[in-house]
């Protein structure tokens, strides 16, 4: 999510954007950046796989490949190839905007065909990922149009709905996960205690006066929660015959396509494009680079295209869409190093993590309660980020009407996801996602309701 707070104060840079720090300084700086995003990279594929009850081998692969393609995407962003890449110290990672839509796509496919294989589900998600990436690549050349159609109000509503819809999944993990439903383990004191311990640890780390501890809060929370879960005998069993090394395989689980899934994912690619604009602007400001004018426009276009190309590469390896992460902006500010060459080290670290299956295994043995404790905070941050975007707009009667209709239909869909079951299959697939319903409603009402004669809420008639 955009780190505008970090962009408010631009510190003195020890190493500028194009400076080359000494090898060891760059290597250590890259580790600090990695710690700020490592949990956020592994969590989205783990979340999707657990929600769709994927087997262990697919889950491990999906977590590992997320790191691998994040490394490739980070390399593209920091070392541009032609028009692809921002040329900033931007980390490319698996986006948190998409899990709800992919889970909805999987649930819808299983409802339509109960005998569908898990590999087929991955293939469907792969098709939506690759097709949607083309939308983002095209949009990288249409940044002016985006600002007119996707206003802060529309984007704020959509991002907020992402957080709201994900909180249900986060809370399910917090109380023990899908496997605990209907058993004595559901909402047990052990699960609640471990989840609360993770959440409290992250909170206390963020209250610390030590910036390095704040940047690593998520990792510290996971470690504390995992140790506590281990002492309570809650860790999931290790899979048999763990491979020590495994190279990614293109289209390992095939390729398939559905129009309903594509439309839903394509909408979120547009939202992700708008979000990337803020992230690139924040990183540019911290790097003491222009945030407007031709140079910035070129950088912005390259960064968005880098998102699209990285997402297409991710799809080729059956992974999920990529997005620019701004969590590492705090690290740039902390260590005074904005050198894009540090990104090469980050990319190498991520690629290395992606070829050792033990990384995916570590994520997979973590109990749902540990994951839930972190996800509650992460999804709450997404929700608050969306609300902050909304509040940048003038909340007149028109805006309130758009917000009310969009949230009403979006949250209503979350409560009754089968409301569109009797509509044509392609439409039903699209409207199965609360995020898609809220986003489309916001776009349509924003275009249809007249923008003139703004009237403040509570103003006299």
Q: What is the structure about, briefly put?
A:
Mean pLDDT is 86; it is low at 1-10 and 456-461. The protein contains 19 helices and two strands.
Mean pLDDT: 86
Number of DSSP helices? 19
**What fraction strand?**
under 5%
What's the total number of strands? 2
- Largest β-sheet summary: 2 strands, antiparallel
Q: How are the strands of the biggest sheet laid out side by side? A: 1-2
Measured between the Cα atoms of the first and last residue, the distance is 39 Å
- Which range best describes the helical content: under 10%, 10-25%, 25-40%, 40-55%, 55-70% or over 70%? 55-70%
C-alpha Rg (nearest Å): 21 Å
Which structural class do the helices and strands define?
Answer: mainly alpha
Order of helices and strands: HHHEHHHHHHHHHEHHHHHHH
Low-pLDDT residue intervals, each spanning 5 or more residues: 1-10, 456-461
Q: Which shape, going by the Cα principal axes?
A: globular
Topology summary:
Elements: H1 4-7, H2 23-51, H3 56-78, E1 91-94, H4 99-112, H5 118-139, H6 143-149, H7 152-174, H8 189-207, H9 211-215, H10 217-231, H11 259-286, H12 294-316, E2 322-325, H13 329-335, H14 342-354, H15 358-365, H16 368-390, H17 397-415, H18 425-431, H19 434-448
Antiparallel strand pairs: 1-2
Helix pairs in contact: 2-3, 2-4, 2-10, 2-14, 3-12, 3-14, 3-15, 4-5, 5-11, 5-12, 7-16, 7-17, 7-19, 8-10, 8-16, 10-16, 11-12, 11-18, 11-19, 17-19
């Amino acid at each position: 999510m955009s780190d505008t707070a970090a962009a408010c104060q631009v510190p003195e840079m020890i190493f500028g954007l194009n400076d080359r720090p000494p090898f060891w300084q760059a290597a250590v700086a890259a580790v600090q950046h990695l710690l700020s995003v490592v949990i956020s990279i592994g969590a989205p594929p783990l979340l999707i796989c657990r929600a769709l009850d994927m087997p262990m081998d697919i889950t491990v692969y999906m977590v590992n490949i997320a790191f691998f393609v994040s490394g490739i995407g980070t390399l593209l962003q920091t070392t541009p190839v032609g028009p692809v890449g921002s040329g900033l110290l931007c980390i490319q990672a698996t986006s948190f905007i998409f899990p709800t839509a992919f889970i909805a796509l999987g649930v819808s496919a299983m409802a339509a065909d109960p005998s569908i294989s898990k590999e087929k589900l991955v293939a469907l998600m792969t098709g939506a990922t690759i097709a949607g990436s083309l939308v983002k690549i095209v949009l990288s050349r249409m940044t002016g149009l985006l600002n007119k159609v996707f206003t802060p109000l529309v984007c704020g509503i959509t991002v907020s709905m992402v957080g709201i819809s994900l909180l249900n999944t986060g809370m399910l993990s917090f109380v023990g996960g899908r496997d605990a439903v209907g058993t004595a383990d559901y909402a047990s004191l052990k699960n609640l205690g471990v989840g609360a311990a993770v959440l409290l640890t992250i909170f206390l780390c963020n209250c610390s006066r030590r910036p390095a501890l704040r940047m690593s809060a998520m990792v510290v929370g996971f470690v504390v929660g995992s140790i506590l879960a281990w002492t309570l005998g809650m860790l999931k069993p290790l899979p048999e015959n763990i491979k020590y090394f495994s190279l990614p395989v293109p289209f390992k689980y095939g390729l398939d396509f559905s129009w309903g899934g594509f439309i839903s994912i394509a909408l979120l690619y547009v939202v992700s494009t708008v979000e990337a604009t803020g992230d690139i602007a924040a990183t540019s400001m911290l790097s003491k680079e222009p945030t407007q004018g031709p140079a910035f426009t070129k950088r912005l276009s390259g960064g968005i295209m880098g998102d699209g190309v990285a997402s297409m590469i991710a799809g080729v390896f059956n992974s999920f869409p990529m997005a620019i992460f701004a969590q590492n902006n705090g690290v740039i500010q902390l260590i005074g190093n904005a050198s894009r060459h540090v990104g090469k080290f980050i990319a190498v670290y991520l690629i290395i993590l992606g070829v050792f299956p033990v990384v995916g295994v570590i994520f997979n043995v973590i109990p749902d309660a540990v994951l839930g404790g972190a996800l509650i905070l992460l999804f709450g941050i997404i929700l608050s980020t969306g609300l902050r975007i909304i509040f940048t707009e003038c909340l007149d009667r028109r805006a309130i009407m758009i917000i009310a209709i969009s949230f009403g239909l979006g949250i209503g869909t979350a409560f009754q996801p089968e409301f569109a079951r009797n509509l044509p299959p392609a439409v039903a697939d699209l409207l199965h996602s609360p995020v898609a319903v809220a986003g489309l409603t916001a776009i349509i009402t924003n275009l249809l309701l007249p923008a003139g004669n703004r009237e403040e809420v509570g103003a006299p008639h």
